[in-house]
TrEMBL record:
Membrane topology reported for the UniProt record: Multi-pass membrane protein
Transmembrane parts of this sequence: 113-134, 140-157, 169-187, 230-251
Organism: Enterococcus saccharolyticus 30_1
Sample GO molecular function, one term: transmembrane transporter activity
Protein name in UniProt: Threonine/serine exporter-like N-terminal domain-containing protein
């Protein structure tokens, strides 16, 4: 009985951790964890989820465990994978040990978009949003390349240096430099349009949305923590652009 309870807690915590680290809302994480416990015969489980930690307990056995949440990225494929496994467990298609083993494999087997496609998508998002925000078609190609370079710069810095928000600062710094150099070199016509479009892939839109959804759902701590993180990310982007303007002496 004790081993079963421990396995159940570890399974619920692992499912919750995967969902939290990949952009799920707090209420969805708690609901998934409680459903897994209920389908395993523990209807009186209790879970408490924050942006940096997950707590899970079983009232019937007085067992409780805690799991840290370190990274927070956006990968909805992994969230879908967890939900799919949870439904399979609810329908008795897999056992609890099989569910736990499958969850452990999610980070390795869940496909993610290749790097070239991510960079290409960042360029497309940058150039199209530049047009939507009132830019000129003559700046479309330049914005595409600047947005792509800025995005891949952020990925490289995040992988090379484990300092939070530094990747956004360096990426926006590169974007600002390339934008000003492109205008001064006659490749584009408007610095504002280039920068506004190119920084769009860096803006933490999903984090801000999830922050408000958590707050509206009553999860004030998690919502505030996510909102603060999003604000710091936006501030890093703004400081990077402001640094470029300071170094180059403005837009001219």
């Amino acid at each position: 009985m004790q081993e079963t309870d421990e396995l159940l807690l570890e399974t619920c915590l692992l499912a919750g951790k995967i969902m939290m680290e990949n952009g799920s809302e707090v209420y969805r994480v708690e609901d998934t964890m409680n459903r897994i416990a209920a389908n395993a015969g523990e209807a009186n489980s209790i879970s408490y989820v924050t942006a940096t930690g997950i707590f899970m307990g079983l009232r019937s056995s007085h067992y409780a465990q805690v799991e840290n949440v370190h990274d927070r990225v956006i990968n909805l494929e992994k969230i879908v994978a967890v939900n799919r496994l949870s439904r399979s467990f609810a329908e008795k298609q897999i056992t609890l040990p099989q569910l736990y083993a499958s969850l452990k494999k999610i980070n390795q087997v869940t496909p993610s978009f290749p790097l070239w496609l991510q960079v290409l998508s960042a360029g497309v998002v940058s150039s199209t949003l530049m047009i939507i925000f009132g830019g000129n078609w003559s700046d479309f190609i330049v914005t595409f390349f600047i947005g792509s370079i800025g995005f891949i710069t952020g990925l490289w810095v995040k992988k090379a240096i484990d300092i939070r928000f530094l990747d956004m600062f360096v990426a926006s710094l590169v974007i600002g430099c390339l934008a000003i150099l492109s205008v001064r070199g006659g490749l584009a016509g408007n610095v504002d349009n280039l920068i506004i479009g190119a920084v769009m892939p860096l803006v933490p839109g999903v984090a801000i949305t999830n922050s408000f959804r958590d707050i509206l759902a009553g999860h004030l701590i998690s919502g505030t923590a996510r909102g603060t993180e999003a604000i710091f990310t936006a501030a890093a982007i703004g400081v990077g652009i402001a640094t470029v303007f300071t170094l180059f002496g403005g837009l001219s």
